[in-house]
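Tip: read the tokens left to right.
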């Protein structure tokens, strides 16, 4: 939380990257002004530069039924007090697959109580929806006369051609969960003859709802397998009035080949959820023995490393998956075994091994993964290692960007000599950037409580500074002040300028609000000393101006008067007249000098705004 408190941008990043799958904002006063964060578009397979920040951009990707329900919900509830937005919307991914988003938001009201903005989050719950929908479809198939599905089951919405597959269907067809499930793409796995038979039978089923139809077909899977199968389906009513769905099963005929036996094997509920979750969470699993005589991978792991489907992914991961360690490439699986040996991991332990930069050799693409390992007892005495790899490349990039921004922030504070701090008033402690330690002359041993901060103040500020902070808290306002401290490190007296602003901050768990002061702090000792020198110089100039304007001019005036009186005292006396002619021009010349000095003083006072005409302070004579 210390790092997150540095700026609103970091808090925004936190919610966007860690708490939700995108942030959205809608200006109700200007309905065409709507914004979605990059994370939302990334979840749908797009870059933000590819789309416009307008409602029409996401609406064309949304399911029409969900869009209609959302529009109806807004019309009925937007004007209500304490309006909350909570809708489930299905979007079309760039690859063609469906992405279910839970969209939540809260309204922002103006002073008249009218909703003018909505701010909210998106949560990708695709895996939860698929699991839920899979179980619902299983039950529905049994209720409609089908036997308990063993190989695979599917659904087709007649009105828009949307297809849903259970996890077994992806495995049977040899495709990943990114496969574009359209009716045409699904038919493309069959010969032209079977495509015509399936299309005609589907059309007949729509015209005869409730009738079960069955066809024997041959599936040509993406991995090159030829799979004889029985496709059975039935047309039933959809949730929306007047619309129809086709639900069906896909059963593989028994053969003696190892490939058919593998496809025929039932997936347990746990395996189904594991496969769906691995795709949704961007994770993969590996199992291997210490001698690497056995190595197996979860079906989604090859997708993470972009390994061609026709290759044996486990063998290629064993031979080509490398980790970048200290700038060198090492085979990753042997490296994991060495780490486990060094850490002395025992049976049943689940350990985080660390973050690794991995590279699939033939592709050259590098990605960051979090690696977790679990050791269990195998069928014999040999242990089996289960390795979970979580791709967090996007998160890692954001972390690096955040650290870079933090570095630039700290460097800029160091250059400018300004540090920032946060005071948690309820808890009575504070924290701040590293430069504050240098400014205050403290180290890591200094306990950062408010009382300890006050203890640094010089005696003349021990009461005024806490009083200023207290007034800011009571009024909920900001303030600026300058005070003096004594640094513990060197006992030096330093002048500190502090800026502070009061905020009522909502805590992490949204249970209450915490009164907080945030602000900046800098050492202004040099500026204060400079100001003191300027004031001393101004005092000297005032004294000089007073002296020349009053103390010098007064005797000069007397000298001129005496000179003028000489001619009257001895009229016609040549010596007196000579003396007068010598003194009078000199006195007038001195008077001109004093006049020019006064003119220059006037110019200085107008330019600087400093008055030098005040009577200088004089010590009283005893």
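Filled-in amino acids:
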């Amino acid at each position: 939380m210390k790092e997150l408190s540095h700026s609103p941008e970091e808090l925004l990043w936190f919610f966007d990257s860690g708490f939700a799958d995108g942030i959205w904002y809608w200006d109700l006063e200007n309905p065409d002004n709507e914004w979605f964060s990059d994370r939302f578009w990334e979840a749908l397979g797009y870059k933000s530069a590819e789309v416009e920040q307008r409602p029409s951009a996401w609406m064309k990707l949304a399911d029409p039924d969900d869009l209609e329900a959302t529009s109806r919900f807004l019309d009925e509830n937007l004007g209500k007090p304490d309006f909350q937005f909570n809708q489930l919307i299905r979007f079309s991914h760039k690859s063609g697959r469906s992405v279910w988003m839970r969209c939540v938001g809260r309204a922002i009201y103006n002073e008249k109580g009218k909703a003018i903005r909505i701010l909210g989050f998106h949560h990708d719950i695709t895996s939860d929806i698929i699991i839920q929908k899979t179980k619902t479809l299983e039950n529905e198939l049994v209720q409609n006369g089908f036997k308990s599905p063993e190989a695979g089951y599917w659904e087709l919405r007649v009105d828009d051609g949307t297809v849903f597959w259970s996890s077994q269907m992806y495995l049977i067809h040899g495709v990943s969960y990114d496969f574009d499930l359209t009716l045409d793409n699904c038919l493309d796995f069959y010969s032209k003859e079977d495509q015509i038979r399936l299309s005609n039978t589907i059309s007949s089923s729509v015209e005869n709802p409730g009738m079960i139809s069955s066809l024997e077909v041959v599936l040509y899977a993406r991995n090159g397998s030829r799979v004889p199968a029985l496709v059975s389906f039935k047309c039933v009513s959809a949730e929306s009035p007047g619309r129809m769905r086709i639900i069906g099963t896909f059963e593989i005929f028994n053969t003696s080949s190892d490939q058919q036996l593998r496809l025929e094997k039932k997936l347990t509920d746990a395996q189904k959820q594991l496969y769906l979750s691995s795709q949704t969470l961007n994770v993969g699993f590996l199992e291997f023995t210490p001698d690497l005589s056995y190595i197996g991978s979860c079906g989604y792991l090859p997708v993470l490393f972009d390994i061609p489907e026709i290759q044996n992914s486990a063998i290629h991961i064993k031979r080509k998956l490398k980790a970048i360690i200290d700038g060198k490439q090492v085979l990753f699986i042997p490296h994991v075994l060495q780490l486990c040996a060094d850490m002395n991991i025992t049976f049943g332990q689940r350990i985080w091994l660390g973050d690794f930069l991995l590279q699939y050799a033939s592709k050259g693409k590098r990605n960051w993964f979090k690696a977790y390992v679990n050791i269990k007892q195998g069928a014999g005495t040999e242990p089996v290692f289960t390795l979970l790899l979580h791709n967090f490349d996007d998160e890692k990039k954001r972390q690096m960007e955040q650290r870079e921004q933090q570095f630039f922030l700290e460097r800029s504070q160091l250059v400018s000599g300004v540090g920032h701090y946060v005071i948690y008033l309820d808890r009575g402690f504070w924290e701040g950037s590293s430069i504050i330690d240098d400014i205050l002359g403290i180290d890591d041993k200094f306990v950062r409580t408010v009382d300890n901060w006050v203890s640094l103040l010089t005696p003349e500020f021990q009461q005024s500074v806490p009083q200023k902070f207290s007034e800011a808290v009571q009024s909920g306002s900001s303030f600026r002040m300058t005070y003096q401290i004594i640094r513990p490190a060197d006992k030096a007296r330093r002048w500190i300028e502090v800026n502070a602003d009061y905020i009522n901050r909502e805590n992490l768990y949204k249970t209450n609000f915490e009164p907080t002061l945030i602000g900046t702090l800098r050492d202004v000792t040099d500026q204060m000393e400079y100001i003191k020198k300027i004031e001393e110089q101004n005092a000297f100039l005032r004294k000089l101006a007073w002296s020349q304007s009053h103390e010098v001019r007064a005797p000069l005036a007397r000298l001129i008067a005496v000179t003028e009186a000489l001619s009257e005292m001895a009229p016609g006396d040549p010596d007196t007249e000579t003396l007068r002619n010598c003194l009078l021009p000199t006195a007038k010349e001195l008077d001109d000098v004093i006049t020019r000095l006064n003119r220059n003083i006037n110019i200085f006072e107008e330019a600087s705004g400093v008055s030098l005409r005040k009577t200088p302070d004089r010590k009283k004579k005893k």
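The radius of gyration is 42 Å. Residues 574-608 form the longest helix (35 residues).
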